[in-house]
Amino acid sequence: MSLYGHEDAWREWNAALAGPRMHHGWILAGARGLGKASFAMQAASELVAEPGIPQPPGSHPDILVLSHLPATKEDEKKRDEGKPFQLKRNIAVEQIRAVQQRLYTRPTLGSRRAIIIDPADDLEKGAANALLKSLEEPPQGTYFLLVAHRPGRLLPTIRSRCRILRFARLSDAQMDAALREQAPEASASARSAAIRASAGSPGAALEFLALDLAPVYELLDQIAQAGDPGFVLRGKLADAIGARPDRARQAAMLELARAITANRMRDTPVRAIPLLCDTNAELANLAAQFPVANFDPGLLVQETGGLLARLAATRDAAHG
């Protein structure tokens, strides 16, 4: 996928790469779905490449990527068979320590090695502390690229030892170009809905299309616009989500609810801002609990819809 909207990030990275002293730690910060992981892979490939040394066409021995592992042995088997599988919720300390063992040896092909952690804000506590030791005393020629959707969740000591490279959300025109390239089968109306719902994140927009979230988004928006005193819309929302939705679909619903709340901030009178902020904070708390909690899908729909229904009062305030 083309990396739309990353011109500033590339300029900053390339300037650092051409400088006399490349910083050893980088945080790639921005919303989920902006292409930070793809940027990290391309940037790491440039970092480890050296004149006169042939580079492998596929995976590179000097680019190490840490991410979520399969949740269970059965999920490992499903992965190996090319079937859908569940991931662990965090990146474990054992993964960091395994990489640190590699750092005692020299890079395989050249003089540089890149460590990509995606996403670094999902490091468990022990893993974050172990990573900090490597950031404090980085081996020569080793560089860390930490993909972070919520950099505030990283340890302050990790943030202080890294240079932050920020990724902005894309414009509607950039989003449309990305969707035309990656989802050419999507209709104009589907692209428009995906752009409205994804708040400048092409990854979120593609997930929106893949999961067929348009009906879910329209119902969430109706609840936020008109409320749901008779629970009719929440019943329709439960049907749209499905009786046994997977975690990806439930998580997407929460992200759509947060996007609706954020969009409402732009045209809401000042007196309604506190309610919007409270609603956004409660949705954020719900989204933060979701990866580690076992919510009943029906109750999650009711809770999410109930929070959005409060926003109807902000609409009344805007027109009252």
TrEMBL record:
InterPro entries, per the entry: DNA_Rep/Repair_Clamp_Loader, P-loop_NTPase
Residue runs in coiled coils: none
Superkingdom assignment: Bacteria
This protein's name: DNA polymerase III subunit delta
Species the sequence originates in: Alteraurantiacibacter lauratis
Classification of source organism: Bacteria, Pseudomonadati, Pseudomonadota, Alphaproteobacteria, Sphingomonadales
